[in-house]
């Protein structure tokens, strides 16, 4: 059986390598010529722990190859669609252009007894109402009598994807029972737990609920930060006390914003799935709250500088964290809250320095920020913590302050530090959602 994985981003590449590692013959397909060239040379195009070793191993085994286009072969083929499904930044409506283009290519190549598995995150009913009829129209085949169709949504965590592909349960829904079984026969080689659901739509919805639930959970912590700010209370004290010894609570600290390719997008795919049928006000409110935290962070920066009696203009500002998260670490800066913060500070004519343990210095430089690999040796007026990488948890602020020869301002978007401790060493500390940032 030949498996074609179409789309080699964070979802497709990790899956392709994992399937090759368990013995399947894989062709990884992507239109990005530079990406294909690097992968053919054993050079990973994204960060994941152990990915370089795995890539080189499966290349050496001959179980994987890479191409820009689908290659027609006589044997049975499985097409796994894993291209991105973004939303329009203005309307928040799904943009399925990439998906439709790939489906068209598959339709031109698919033959009797082949199989299509949808790995991309899509609005509910996409597989049945868009992918299936398009494949049938182009190929002149009928589903499920001539080819099989299943949905097996990706649910892995960036920075732990290779590990989780071997450990997490795999949801599978299909056009019919045989499609489910054929998809299960592939994925049960990578994970012990297969969860077979009754339909394509159930599988699609599960993925959207996963990330919508997470987005809503985050919004509760962010809402708490806003409440504490208005009531002149300390969000750390309130949330830690509410959670302590009370297992039913898992309230998160407020943060500088939500980023990545999933949480800022998938709730809108869920909204689109119910358009004209059900108003998902909770989902919409959570998105608004989480999006608003970038403005909250900008206000906090302004107020922090005001309170220490300095101007943002010409200040030396160190930004820590450019990826949208730091645990587990990733090089993904898509929708990272750091990006609009950088834009704001550039407008203020600040002198910007930056560090991220995983994001390449070249990427940081392209954002108009000077990379500093040894950030604790620099002189800064302000340090802004924008993700929760473990390297940011034990910073010697006193060392930085001694070089600067004046109290430094620390803006903490992840509650990595204790204000009481920093107060003792003269650091002006401003975490999101506490009474200091009014």
Describe the structure in your own words.
The longest helix has 32 residues, at 200-231. By secondary structure, the chain is an alpha/beta fold. Helix 4 crosses helix 5 (126-139) and helix 8 (200-231) packs across helix 10 (266-273). Helix content is 41%, strand content 13%. It is elongated, with a radius of gyration of 24 Å. Strands 3-2-1-4-5-6-7-8 form an eight-stranded mixed beta sheet, sandwiched between helices. It has a six-stranded parallel beta sheet with strand order 11-10-9-12-13-14. It folds into three domains: 2-198, Rossmann fold, CATH 3.40.50.720; 208-286, N-(1-d-carboxylethyl)-l-norvaline Dehydrogenase, domain 2 (Orthogonal Bundle); 292-437, Rossmann fold, CATH 3.40.50.720. The chain has 15 helices and 14 strands.
C-alpha-based Rg, rounded = 24 Å
Helix content: 40-55%
Could you state the order of secondary-structure elements as H and E? Answer: EHEHHEEHEHEHEHEHHHHEHEHEEHEHE
- Side by side, the strands of the main sheet go 3-2-1-4-5-6-7-8
Alpha plus pi helix count: 15
Number of strands: 14
Question: In CATH terms, what is the architecture of the largest domain?
Answer: 3-Layer(aba) Sandwich
Structural class by sheet pairing and helices? alpha/beta
The end-to-end span amounts to 62 Å
Please tell me the total number of domains: 3
- Average predicted local confidence, pLDDT: 95
- Could you name the ranges where pLDDT drops below 50 across 5 or more consecutive residues? none
CATH-level-4 superfamily name of the largest domain: NAD(P)-binding Rossmann-like Domain
Q: What is the CATH level 1 assignment of the largest domain? A: Alpha Beta
| Beta strand % | 5-15%
The quaternary structure here is single chain
């Amino acid at each position: 059986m030949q498996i074609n994985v179409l789309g080699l981003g964070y979802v497709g590449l990790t899956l392709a390598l994992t399937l090759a590692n368990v013995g399947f013959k894989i062709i990884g397909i992507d239109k990005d010529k530079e990406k294909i060239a690097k992968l053919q040379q054993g050079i990973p195009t994204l960060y994941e722990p152990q990915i370089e070793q795995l890539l080189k191993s499966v290349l050496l085994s001959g179980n994987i190859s890479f191409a820009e286009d689908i290659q027609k072969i006589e044997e049975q083929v499985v097409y796994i669609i894993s291209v991105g499904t973004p939303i329009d930044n203005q309307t928040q409506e799904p943009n399925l252009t990439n998906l439709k283009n790939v489906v068209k290519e598959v339709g031109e190549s698919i033959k009797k007894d082949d199989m299509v598995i949808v790995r991309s995150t899509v609005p509910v009913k996409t597989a049945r109402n868009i992918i299936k009829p398009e494949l049938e129209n182009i190929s002149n085949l009928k589903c499920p009598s001539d080819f099989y169709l299943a949905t097996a949504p990706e649910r892995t965590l960036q920075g732990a994807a290779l590990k989780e592909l071997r450990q997490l349960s795999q949801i599978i829904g299909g056009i019919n029972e045989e499609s489910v079984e054929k998809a299960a026969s592939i994925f049960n080689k990578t994970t012990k737990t297969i969860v077979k659901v009754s339909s394509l739509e159930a599988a699609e919805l599960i993925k959207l609920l996963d990330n919508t639930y997470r987005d809503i959970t985050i919004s509760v912590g962010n809402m708490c930060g806003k409440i504490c700010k208005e009531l002149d209370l300390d969000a750390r004290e309130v949330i830690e006390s509410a959670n302590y010894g009370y297992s039913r609570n898992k309230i998160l600290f407020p943060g500088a914003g939500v980023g990545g390719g999933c949480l800022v997008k998938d709730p809108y795919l869920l909204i689109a799935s119910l358009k004209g049928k059900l108003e998902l006000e909770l989902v919409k409110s959570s998105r608004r709250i989480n999006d608003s935290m970038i403005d909250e962070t900008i206000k906090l920066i302004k107020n922090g500088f005001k309170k220490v009696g300095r101007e943002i203009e010409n200040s030396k500002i160190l930004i820590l964290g450019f990826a949208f998260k730091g645990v587990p670490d990733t090089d993904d800066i898509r929708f990272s809250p750091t990006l609009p913060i950088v834009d704001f500070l550039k407008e203020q004519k600040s002198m910007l320095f930056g560090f991220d343990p995983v994001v390449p210095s070249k990427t940081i430089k392209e954002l108009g920020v000077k990379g500093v690999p040894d950030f604790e040796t620099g002189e800064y007026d302000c340090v802004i913590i924008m993700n929760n990488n473990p390297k940011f948890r034990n910073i010697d602020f006193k060392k930085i302050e001694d070089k600067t020869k004046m109290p430094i301002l620390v803006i903490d978007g992840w509650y990595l530090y204790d204000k009481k401790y920093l107060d003792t060493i003269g650091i002006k500390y401003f975490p999101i959602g506490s009474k200091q940032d009014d």
